[in-house]
């Protein structure tokens, strides 16, 4: 696709991530404009449209089918991703789909099959950490070989709080899926065996959701990965990653914040949520998507196959939540 400026439509524009994508397309991304939005919450959709000069569509299907729309961003709730992605692909529209690609392995496969049937690479998935400057630096150091082969990876994913309807399974499909993908990307290989352990639950866990969780994964070459997944850390949002290699370690830096000394105390601010931590990554993933569609780069971003592989690993982890055993990832 080659056009001076791509007209982008955003599905789910009323939610936090949908608004972020809408804002980035309208104010940051070169070569694109926010042309239309849709959300079940009409009031929120109208607010976004008014703010950024876009049109409000009456339905997702209308937006996808519109000849005025060149490409689509899917930022609606997780369970709708696969169906909407297939509709975009069948309409011949390039699509940027937020993670996860699907909430079931069966639905993820439908997306992959639809793209293969189209004969084109039409989907980029929102694994934005691949575009974070610090993760990129980590990968360059690892790929240089200066520290030898990787042996272990220690990861932490802490969110201040989660909605009351958040489930035990969503700790995997909505949170740990970022670590699933970033570890695949950093190591350049797949993960083949997984397990989940439940420590004592926090008093802030809602309903039957088991929080926190310890996710364990092993790569094809034998790298052992542990991920602490906390949906109710209470104190703030924190993402950490350390790769242990033969000759040293590579650690993701703590987000830079001024250290303030005041009366009888010293400290620095902790981000409240992802909107402050991954600003550049969210901008750059969309810029890369548009650049690829415009032919400015021939390197595609993470695609449907990456989304499918992450769903396979998620599927095995959800099984491991129930069995308490190590589970094989489907080959």
TrEMBL record:
<dbReference type="Pfam" id="PF02894">
    <property type="entry name" value="GFO_IDH_MocA_C"/>
</dbReference>
<feature type="domain" description="Gfo/Idh/MocA-like oxidoreductase N-terminal">
    <location>
        <begin position="7"/>
        <end position="124"/>
    </location>
</feature>
<protein>
    <submittedName>
        <fullName>Inositol 2-dehydrogenase</fullName>
    </submittedName>
</protein>
<dbReference type="InterPro" id="IPR004104">
    <property type="entry name" value="Gfo/Idh/MocA-like_OxRdtase_C"/>
</dbReference>
<comment type="similarity">
    <text>Belongs to the Gfo/Idh/MocA family.</text>
</comment>
<dbReference type="Pfam" id="PF01408">
    <property type="entry name" value="GFO_IDH_MocA"/>
</dbReference>
<dbReference type="InterPro" id="IPR050424">
    <property type="entry name" value="Gfo-Idh-MocA_inositol_DH"/>
</dbReference>
<dbReference type="InterPro" id="IPR000683">
    <property type="entry name" value="Gfo/Idh/MocA-like_OxRdtase_N"/>
</dbReference>
<dbReference type="InterPro" id="IPR036291">
    <property type="entry name" value="NAD(P)-bd_dom_sf"/>
</dbReference>
<feature type="domain" description="Gfo/Idh/MocA-like oxidoreductase C-terminal">
    <location>
        <begin position="139"/>
        <end position="326"/>
    </location>
</feature>
């Amino acid at each position: 696709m080659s056009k001076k400026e791509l007209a982008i439509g955003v599905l789910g524009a009323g939610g936090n991530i949908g608004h972020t994508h809408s804002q980035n397309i309208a104010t940051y991304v070169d070569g694109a404009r926010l042309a239309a939005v849709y959300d079940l919450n009409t009031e929120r959709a109208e607010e976004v449209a008014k703010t950024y000069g876009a049109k409000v569509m009456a339905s997702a299907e209308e937006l996808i089918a519109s000849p005025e729309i060149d490409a689509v961003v899917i930022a609606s709730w997780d369970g709708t991703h696969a169906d909407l992605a297939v509709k975009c692909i069948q309409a011949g529209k390039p699509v940027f789909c937020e993670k996860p690609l699907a909430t079931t392995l069966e639905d993820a496969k439908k997306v992959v099959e639809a793209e293969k049937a189209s004969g084109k690479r039409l989907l980029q998935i929102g694994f934005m950490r691949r575009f974070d400057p610090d993760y990129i630096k980590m990968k360059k150091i690892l790929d240089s070989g200066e520290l030898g082969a990787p042996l272990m990876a220690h990861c932490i994913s802490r969110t201040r709080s989660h909605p009351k309807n958040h489930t035990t399974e969503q700790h995997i499909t909505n949170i740990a899926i970022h670590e699933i993908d970033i570890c695949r990307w950093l190591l350049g290989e797949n993960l083949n065996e997984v397990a989940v352990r439940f420590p004592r639950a926090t008093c802030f866990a809602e309903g039957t959701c088991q929080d926190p969780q310890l996710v364990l994964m092993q790569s094809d070459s034998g790298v052992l990965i542990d991920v602490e997944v906390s949906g109710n850390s209470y104190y703030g949002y924190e993402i950490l990653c350390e790769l242990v290699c033969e000759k040293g370690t590579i650690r993701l830096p703590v987000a830079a914040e001024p250290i303030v000394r005041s009366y009888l105390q010293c400290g620095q601010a902790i981000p409240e949520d992802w909107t402050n931590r991954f600003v550049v990554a969210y901008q750059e993933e969309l810029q890369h998507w548009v650049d690829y569609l415009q032919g400015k780069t021939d390197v595609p971003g993470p695609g449907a196959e990456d989304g499918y592989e992450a769903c396979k690993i998620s599927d095995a982890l959800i099984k491991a939540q129930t069995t308490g055993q190590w589970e094989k990832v489907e080959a």
